[in-house]
Amino acid sequence: AQTVTQSQPEMSVQEAETVTLSCTYDTSESDYYLFWYKQPPSRQMILVIRQEAYKQQNATENRFSVNFQKAAKSFSLKISDSQLGDAAMYFCAYRTAKGGGSNYKLTFGKGTLLTVNP
Amino acid sequence: NAGVMQNPRHLVRRRGQEARLRCSPMKGHSHVYWYRQLPEEGLKFMVYLQKENIIDESGMPKERFSAEFPKEGPSILRIQQVVRGDSAAYFCASSPTIDRGQRSYTFGSGTRLTVV
Fold first, then answer.
1. Which DSSP string do the residues of A11-56 spell out, in sequence order?
2. pLDDT by residue (tens digit) across B79-113?
3. What is the pLDDT of residue B1?
4. Of the candidates A81, A93, B22, B28, which lies 20 to 30 Å from A14 by C-alpha distance?
5. β-strands B10-13, B111-115: how paired?
């Protein structure tokens, strides 16, 4: 079974600075997707960024980028120019891309609570 | 286009009562997924339903929990005889098809169930 580990329960960053959130995962599969979700106090789960495992290029969405190291099974999220609105719980998630089977399930880490200091 | 609607947002039940959680998927979405978030934990998959069918309930506790997604109306997650350990946030997500890319897999804001 796949597992996702986020080793940082809490992180803090100064406004306008850069912060990196860590995520490692365990899988025997070669084709899969990885995601970062943001959960603000409203509880809404918001997709921040996604990465296909077969793509070597790291995904980027505006101020958010990932460092995907497939061999190391590592998938960290970098937030540049941090803003107060970035404060939230961030979850790393895994989903198999294998056809058939349970390729609709997301497996989540326990999350990292990010605080942004003004 | 309204998102995934869950109600109620907060639900308080006494031990032994029944809890009914509702999820209306996005318009055009026929696939519904329920997840549970225990305190200090990430979301965990419970069940996947299509209209009138349970596709995968491997994450559902064997007793007291059931889910349905009727032809008309919202999906319902039902918890009978609730216990304190059922206190959690319950999230629903929907998608139009099996969305491998996650682009249209949309979550609701969850129902926080508190058992007293």
1. EEEETTS-EEE--EEE-S-SSEEEEEEEE-TT---EEEEEEETT--
2. 999 999 999 999 999 988 766 566 668 899 999 99
3. 55
4. A93
5. parallel
DSSP-derived 3-state class of residue B31: strand
Residue of chain A with shortest Cα separation from B40: A110
B56, closest residue in chain A (CA to CA): A102
Which amino acid appears at position B55 of this protein?
I
Look-up of token digits 């979301």: B43
CA distance B80 to B97: 30
Is the CB of B42 less than 8 angstroms away from the CB of A4? yes
Residue A56's pLDDT is: 86
- Burial-class residue A115 by CB neighbours within 10 Å (0-12, 13-18, 19+): middle
Rounded Cα distance, A92 and A89, in Å: 10
Residues of chain A found within 8 Å of residue B48, distances taken between Cβ atoms = 102, 104-105
pLDDT mean over B56-79: 95
Distances (CA, A) of B116 to B16, B20, B60, B78: 10, 16, 22, 17
Residue A44 has its nearest CB partner, among B35, B48, B109, at B109
- Residue A39 burial by CB count (10 A; 0-12/13-18/19+): exposed, middle or buried? buried
The answer to whether the CB of B34 falls within 8 A of the CB of B91 is: yes
